[in-house]
Amino acid sequence: MLIFAAKRALTDIVNNKFLHIVSIVTIALSVFIVSAFSLFFNNATDFLDAWRTGVRVIAYVGANVTEPQRTRLEETIRNLNGVSVVEFISKDDAFNDLKQKIGQQSSLLDGLDKNPLPDSFEITLTDSYRRLEDIEKLSQSIGGLPYVEDVEYAQKWLHRFNGIYNLFKVTGLVLVSIFFIATLLIIANTIRLIMYSRREEIEIMRIIGADEEFIKYPLFLEAVAQGFLGGVAGILMLYLAFILTVPNLAPETVFSFFEIRFISVKFSLTIVLCSMMIGWVGCFFSIRKFLKL
Amino acid sequence: MLIFAAKRALTDIVNNKFLHIVSIVTIALSVFIVSAFSLFFNNATDFLDAWRTGVRVIAYVGANVTEPQRTRLEETIRNLNGVSVVEFISKDDAFNDLKQKIGQQSSLLDGLDKNPLPDSFEITLTDSYRRLEDIEKLSQSIGGLPYVEDVEYAQKWLHRFNGIYNLFKVTGLVLVSIFFIATLLIIANTIRLIMYSRREEIEIMRIIGADEEFIKYPLFLEAVAQGFLGGVAGILMLYLAFILTVPNLAPETVFSFFEIRFISVKFSLTIVLCSMMIGWVGCFFSIRKFLKL
Amino acid sequence: MHAERKNTIIRMFNVSKRYGKMEALSNLSLEVRKNEFIFVTGPSGAGKSTMIKLLYKGESASSGAILVDGMNLARISRKQIPMLRRQFGVIFQDFKLIPTKTVFQNVALVLAVAGLKPKEIYPRVMDVLERVGIDDRAEEFPPVLSGGEKQRVAVARAMVGGPKIVLADEPTGSLDPDSAAHIFQLLRAVHEAGATVIVATHDQQMINNHDGRVVRLEKGRMAREN
Amino acid sequence: MHAERKNTIIRMFNVSKRYGKMEALSNLSLEVRKNEFIFVTGPSGAGKSTMIKLLYKGESASSGAILVDGMNLARISRKQIPMLRRQFGVIFQDFKLIPTKTVFQNVALVLAVAGLKPKEIYPRVMDVLERVGIDDRAEEFPPVLSGGEKQRVAVARAMVGGPKIVLADEPTGSLDPDSAAHIFQLLRAVHEAGATVIVATHDQQMINNHDGRVVRLEKGRMAREN
Ligand SMILES: Nc1ncnc2c1ncn2[C@@H]1O[C@H](COP(=O)(O)OP(=O)(O)OP(=O)(O)O)[C@@H](O)[C@H]1O
Ligand SMILES: Nc1ncnc2c1ncn2[C@@H]1O[C@H](COP(=O)(O)OP(=O)(O)OP(=O)(O)O)[C@@H](O)[C@H]1O
Ligand SMILES: [Mg+2]
Ligand SMILES: [Mg+2]
């Protein structure tokens, strides 16, 4: 049954080349739009994520802590969930840092007779542990450890950044959904137009006694094949556009920490699968009208 | 001539309702996609711009400058191109600021017997004068003024930000162009499909002696009308989506300085005009094939 | 009208068909026995094609009852319509060939619809194309054929499935006298093989030259039967 | 073939038309005088429709020369084709009515193409629709018409522009004898009003009943002329 349907779909494609090409082109362009935006959106999110890498938690160690105690503390912190790197900063290093930070006005520190700064640990978090809530929780746990006097992190900055990050993510998801729905409707519309110009053929088949399945199966197969070809073509177009434009954007000259990546193979496959499904769904909805003839 | 063509276009629209509706829907969805992305992109650019408002140039004043000299200097700076606000920061204010900035470690400044900081001007730039080059140029001019000892601005941060800003702008423009071209092709494709299902009609008109103009004029008018209706419908759809989603994004709770704006009336009109033109162009290219019959 | 009930294959009782205000058929009653050969004649617009359309349920009657082979057409479900239509071989007045399929594919479609395998289909289609004299055009598409050639393809399609009932709407209107006579022989052969044949035609000569009951319609009503 | 040159309106000289290997017309030569009435006959696929198609330049001849009213069809530009076609009124074998336009709009199109104003168009179209007996269906669309009704619309469209030359391809194939006779009267009237008329038909009876030169084609060749 399926083999015969496939065979008939094949001759049908040969007999209606123009319509199939138009359909594939429209699907390809739609896939191109959605995946281009996804590409942009993914990279922008990654970019913001990479920026967040700078987030560090500083734990200040009490003044009278002995070296073995400190070493134990370091070990404890290192074993906490979400901690990636722990670096010890002696109070002398901290003093020198401060001098550099104040820069021009550093001469005013020369008058000091002793370094009033404490020892500290600079704690870098793992990639998966960078949400605002995670950081807050971790800071609290560290703050509760013995020998830790105080914990500091860029709270204000993080709040702000988190706001941007979430706004961006939500907006992006809204846009992707909108684009997805819009292109889905465009594809359904195109398929409906194709069915419209084939309504005479469908009507004749009905009249000589074809049942719905006989008519539908090859059309569905064709729509799925169109979805497949259109999806692959769309992604190839995106790839072409990608390798043509990205070297000219050259973000790595500005941001050494960040490299623009193409959409993943998995995501590409998902897109192709989606576009096959859209072909099927578009066909499903447009065919009903014309089968009633 | 045009009146008759318009009349014929009108009866034609009545006679081919389905095809016209499909065409208008496809155009509307395409306009929706492009204008939705433009909306996103404009607001994101504005957002980044608003962030840049924080950029200030600091001019340090020499130690032995008298008050009248300083007042004259302030006047001179205020009259420079691109300067919006000039604020005097006395060395005492600067010292208190510094204390706050170092925060926890501020106790170490208590040991100082005299304030080593200079007086300074904090200079805010006008909105149109915030490109990196502008800031650099302005800093140089200010640095060249008498009684100014040194000029400072967040050079490193600005460079980085500028990188993001430019990357974002370029990427956005690339994407808008891609979306524009893709939707243009989709619309042209749809119009071609419509012409295909009307090829018999066109052929019959040719055969009974219609010249190209007779056939073309109503079709062009119809395509332009479709572009107009589709464009307006697309923008209305965007507006609907806008008022439905934006209150839920609620960015103003995070960023008091920023409010999401809808695309401007001028831009909307441009889009409608473009979509009319696209209708015309799409018709122009697809009609040729079928006029050869 | 005095046919024995068990031999009746088609029975129309008080059938009317209205399109808006236009009444294409009015109170038509007709009984057709198995293996009858019937001519339906009448002027342009009399309702001949409409009658044929009602029989294969291309349209539904506005009122009255139609029974085909024991099935009441007003009662059968959408799912059963294809089965009903496969009982018929229909030659349409406007041919109704699919322009994007070749002559061979157009005729083969009837057999594919009936579920035959490609290797059974091929010889049967070529055979019937040969019988209507169009086998050399099997790979062409209908739009390039002459009027008479299209009509012969339509005839071939109607006969290829070995239908119980042949409905022929003006089957020789585009044919020269020789070809027309040839097509008529084919219809006769199908008839002799056991099929019921209903031919709608204006061709008075054709009617005179052949045996068969003649039903004459005028403005949608039965005018005369003999 | 001995017409005086200045009265010749159509001249075909050694015209052939090939479609791939298929030769639809071979070395056809024919001269038609102004206001002649010509029957073209011949079996299915003989090339009658092809000949008509060549005359209005629906296709170009593969070889040979065709002159219509002094114009060499091989030489005229694309821009001139519409002007040429407006000289003709053509009744197509498959009617070629626009399905999405009403009967009225279909017929009116010929006059709109010729540049007439709507208020001039209306009475002329209604008049010709009345003459072919289809005026009561003016606001209907072709797909709902019966075969004969469509054909009468096609006839109306061919005559409404007052053409110099009428090309009628099987103009009565879907009509009952009475309607056919009526249409023939109309063609006669057009002829008497000065038009040249070329009728392609299989209807031998029609040919016998009317005056006119008969050209017989067979397999694309001139078989007999009388
Ligand atoms: N779908 C429809 N809508 C409106 N009127 C219709 C429709 N179908 C048929 N008619 C009308 O019904 C009448 C009968 O049509 P039908 O096609 O049965 O005539 P016919 O006897 O086959 O004529 P012909 O010999 O010209 O083919 C005609 O006047 C036709 O216009
Ligand atoms: N576009 C085409 N491509 C290929 N063959 C064609 C084309 N047009 C016509 N033919 C062939 O040319 C031959 C002559 O066709 P034409 O339509 O002129 O015949 P006709 O005399 O009008 O026949 P009928 O009486 O059946 O209408 C036919 O065999 C036809 O199949
Ligand atoms: Mg009929
Ligand atoms: Mg012909």
How would you characterize this protein structure?
The complex is a heterotetramer, with two copies of chain A (293 residues) and two copies of chain C (226 residues). Chain A is built from nine helices and four strands; from the N terminus they run H-H-E-H-E-H-E-H-E-H-H-H-H. Chain A is α+β, with helices and mostly antiparallel strands and 293 residues long. Chain A has two domains: 181 residues, no CATH class; 98 residues, Alpha-Beta Plaits (2-Layer Sandwich), CATH 3.30.70. In chain A, strands 2-3-1-4 form a four-stranded antiparallel β-sheet. In chain A, helix 1 crosses helix 8, helix 6 runs parallel beside helix 9 and helix 8 runs antiparallel to helix 9. Chain A is elongated. Chain C has 226 residues and is an alpha/beta fold. Chain C has one domain: Rossmann fold (3-Layer(aba) Sandwich). Helices cover 34% and strands 27% of the residues of chain C. Chain C has seven helices and ten strands. A six-stranded mixed β-sheet of chain C has the order 6-7-8-3-9-10, with helices on both faces. In chain C, helix 6 links the parallel strand 7 and strand 8. In chain C, helix 3 packs across helix 4, helix 3 runs parallel beside helix 5 and helix 4 crosses helix 5. The N and C termini of chain C lie close together (10 Å). Chains in contact: A-B, A-C, B-D, C-D. Chains B and D meet through helix 1 and helix 7 of B and helix 2 and helix 3 of D. Bound molecules: adenosine-5'-triphosphate (2 copies) and magnesium ion (MG) (2 copies). One adenosine-5'-triphosphate sits at the interface of chains D and C.
